Amino acid sequence: MESYDLVIIGAGFAGINASLRAKDLNLKVALIEKDLLGGTCLNRGCIPTKSFIQSAKLYLKAKNILKINLPQIDFKELKDKKNNLIERLRLSLSNTLKNRNITYINSFAKFKSEHEIEVNGSVIEAKNIIIAVGSRPQELNFLKFDKKRVLSSDEILELDKIPSSILIVGAGVIGCEFASLFNILGAEVTLVELLPHILPQEDNEISLRLLRIFKKRGIKVYTSFDLRNMDISNYELILVSVGRIPNTETLGLEKIGIKQEKNWIVTDDYLKTNIPNIYAIGDCTNRLMLAHLASYQGWQVPENIVFPKEIKKIKNPYIPNCIFTYPEVARVGLTEEEAKKQNLKFEINRFDFLGLGMSHILEETEGLIKIIWDRETDSLLGASIIGPSATEIIGILNLAIQNKIKISELKNTIFAHPTISECISEVLKQC
């Protein structure tokens, strides 16, 4: 029986980063994946969706700047471009694992005991185990995926043509990104959300700004709306994006007594399960489902395994949330609504991108930066941005909040001109 210091089940961004860090720490590592190397993010999530969105944005920019009628985009060509990109990145990951001598096993995994895992008809042994099996799209009881007309975010990436009309159920991150994409590509888009706001986890002011932009661009949006009250027969395609469920049901977790809640794996602040040598990271733990958070968790857990006397809680409240709509939306720290719920004393400053030279150069002036800050402590509590490069600029503010850089110190930072990042210095001038 082959024995390892650490076996990781799931080769998404969480599992891959855990294997790389474990190898750095001189552990004998095996990485198991039943599907494709790279997990959801590389194959069916972050990378392919952003590839489509980037191509669509370039197409729209060309139309707007050149003021000419371009032929309609060939969606199959976009899909081929996306697939080539994924294959290149997957090959790069495979080569990295080989070069680092990390054992990669392409197989289903099932627990035989707390230290034994069945793979490819044989059993391997592990001192420690990390479960990083991720999640998949959730369907509605009254609207099941049929992979023809009713699709998940997985199947919609495999279309060969742009639909004439599409109904998107759920206006969270995935729903809004696809609404933005198909609107640019010329489809008639309808977006339905049961809650009062699109992007319900974001600052309400930012969500409302995006809502106005969506409506201005011809996207029909219905909030506080129950889909069951709607005639859906006339839509060519229906995308259901109402959440995700964990990929845990085939692992045999019940056999070894791992605690779960509705199939989500329960972990403590160290990402330990109730079994001392078994950890869980990434989407399957029902924390924030973000690839960069999963990567962070994957990097930290092996350190706690190797240095148990220096074990650290794996909790970082400063996690940037990035949404690749058009325009982009990004946030770190508190929203205005969260600050109010915590009864904090705070002030708000805003700066509209209409005042930025680079916004006019890019012809993307529909933007806003909003900061939440405490005058008494001179500290930044949160920031939200809607506009070009929002997902890049938020990293600067994340760095500032995490390192507790004072507002007065930030104001002394010189940002290059003309850039979108100048919005930070402009909003700070009001503090």
List the helices and strands and how they pair.
Elements: E1 3-9, H1 13-24, E2 29-33, H2 39-44, H3 46-66, H4 75-99, E3 103-106, E4 109-111, E5 116-119, E6 122-131, E7 135-137, E8 150-151, E9 165-169, H5 173-184, E10 188-192, H6 204-216, E11 220-222, E12 237-240, E13 244-246, H7 253-256, E14 260-261, E15 264-265, E16 278-280, H8 291-306, E17 321-323, E18 329-333, H9 336-341, E19 347-352, H10 357-362, E20 368-374, E21 379-386, H11 390-402, H12 407-410, H13 422-428
Parallel strand pairs: 1-2, 1-6, 2-3, 6-16, 8-12, 9-10, 9-12, 10-11
Antiparallel strand pairs: 4-5, 5-6, 7-13, 14-15, 17-18, 18-21, 19-20, 20-21
Question: How would you portray this structure in words?
Answer:
- This protein is an alpha/beta fold.
- The protein folds into three domains: 3-135 and 245-310, FAD/NAD(P)-binding domain; 150-242, FAD/NAD(P)-binding domain, CATH 3.50.50.60; 327-428, Enolase-like, domain 1 (2-Layer Sandwich).
- The chain has helices spanning 13-24, 39-44, 46-66, 75-99, 173-184, 204-216, 253-256, 291-306, 336-341, 357-362, 390-402, 407-410, 422-428, and strands spanning 3-9, 29-33, 103-106, 109-111, 116-119, 122-131, 135-137, 150-151, 165-169, 188-192, 220-222, 237-240, 244-246, 260-261, 264-265, 278-280, 321-323, 329-333, 347-352, 368-374, 379-386.
- Strands 1, 2, 3, 4, 5, 6 and 16 form a seven-stranded mixed β-sheet that branches. Strands 8-12-9-10-11 form a five-stranded parallel β-sheet, with helices on one face. A five-stranded antiparallel β-sheet has the order 17-18-21-20-19, sandwiched between helices.
- Helix 1 (13-24) links the parallel strand 1 (3-9) and strand 2 (29-33).
- Helix 3 (46-66) packs across helix 4 (75-99) and helix 3 runs parallel beside helix 5.
- The termini are far apart.
